[in-house]
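Whiteboard transcription, Tuesday session. T.W. wrote the structure tokens on the left side:
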């Protein structure tokens, strides 16, 4: 379905991410197929599990329409592995996929080798009924035993009735690590899969954005290397591989989801994607005026892409122009929220990577 000149960003289904996709230009959407991970959000940590599940189930009917409103009817991968219970995962995968299909969307269900049989059964049924196929998402532990891995993949095809041409194969190593060793190891291991050249797509995902910004300094320039992008370029472009992978990353977020973090306010920091690095303009928790001060500095930096580059860049420009007015009278507000700044940062990142992919040799 997708080739090596394509991009699969891995996104949680939260409002900032939804907004970032909604305002992405059609030109850049051509190079992107998002992978959406549904999460248990907007609940009280004091709630009982049954109450949290019921609340999520209450929102299920509206999710397919929101996905299509944000993305459109072109293919999108959906993953339910971060939801809390197996029955909820199976129900969500079934309802979201089928209702999305009825609305004209193409929702490709993701399965993992260790998924409960109930989840796999739902995915296989969707793949056959809707002709969407599935995406098989492998993680690092799956490669510890090559014989077991190949046997498990064979079982997936046997039980699903699907062929390689109906399945998108994704290898997701999560954290990239501090150098290219981990990336190289698992890219090489993926090349040893007997039928790697026959899958509908071959996607290699990783994330280099840090767990937090504790190593970054306030009021100083902080640059973090985009090791995930650099590894992909260095190891796939002009290299002899049996199958060149599609690039996949976690945008400007840490690749391992930590549910607890949604209950703590983050720093008011701008995370701005550059060609091979992230520029971090670190703020302080709940000091929202720092967003405006950082934006005013960023728009005058020669590395700023310009307000016409993306929605995210336009947002930064608007807030930078608002800074002098706000300083004179903070009562007028207008600093933006954590959500709106994350939306802008993710949208800018998606646009940068789509642009980079489109201009590959």
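and on the right, the sequence the group agreed on:
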């Amino acid at each position: 379905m997708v080739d090596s000149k394509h991009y699969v960003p891995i996104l949680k289904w939260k409002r900032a991410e939804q907004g970032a996709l909604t305002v992405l230009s059609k030109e850049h959407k051509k190079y992107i197929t998002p992978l959406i991970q549904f999460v248990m959000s907007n609940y009280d940590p004091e709630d009982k599990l049954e109450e949290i599940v019921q609340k999520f189930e209450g929102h299920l009917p509206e999710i397919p329409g929101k996905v299509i409103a944000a993305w459109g009817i072109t293919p999108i991968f959906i993953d339910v592995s971060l939801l809390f219970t197996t029955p909820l995962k199976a129900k969500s995968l079934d309802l979201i996929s089928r209702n999305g299909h009825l609305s004209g969307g193409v929702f490709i269900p993701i399965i993992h080798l260790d998924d409960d049989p109930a989840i796999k059964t739902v995915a296989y049924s969707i793949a056959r009924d809707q002709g969407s196929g599935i995406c098989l998402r492998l993680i690092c532990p799956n490669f510890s035993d090559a014989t077991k891995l190949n046997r498990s993949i064979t079982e997936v095809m046997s039980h699903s009735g699907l062929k390689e041409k109906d399945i998108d194969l994704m290898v997701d190593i999560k954290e990239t690590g501090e150098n290219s060793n981990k990336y190289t190891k698992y890219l090489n291991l993926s090349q040893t899969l007997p039928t790697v050249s026959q899958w509908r797509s071959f996607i290699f995902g990783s994330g280099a954005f840090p767990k937090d910004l504790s190593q970054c300094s306030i009021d100083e320039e902080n640059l973090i290397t985009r090791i995930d992008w650099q590894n992909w370029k260095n190891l796939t472009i002009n290299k002899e591989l049996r199958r060149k992978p599609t690039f996949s990353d976690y945008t400007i977020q840490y690749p391992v989801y930590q549910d607890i973090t949604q209950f703590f306010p983050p720093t008011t920091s701008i995370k701005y994607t550059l060609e091979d690095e992230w520029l971090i303009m670190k703020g302080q928790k709940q000091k929202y005026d720092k967003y405006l001060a950082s934006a005013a500095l960023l728009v005058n930096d020669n590395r700023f892409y310009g307000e016409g580059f993306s929605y995210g860049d336009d947002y930064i420009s608007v807030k930078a122009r608002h800074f002098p007015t706000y300083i004179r009278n903070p009562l007028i507000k207008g600093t933006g929220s954590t959500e709106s700044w994350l939306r802008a940062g993710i949208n800018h990142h998606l646009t940068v990577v789509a642009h980079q992919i489109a201009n590959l040799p």
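Someone added at the bottom: The chain has one domain: 7-358.
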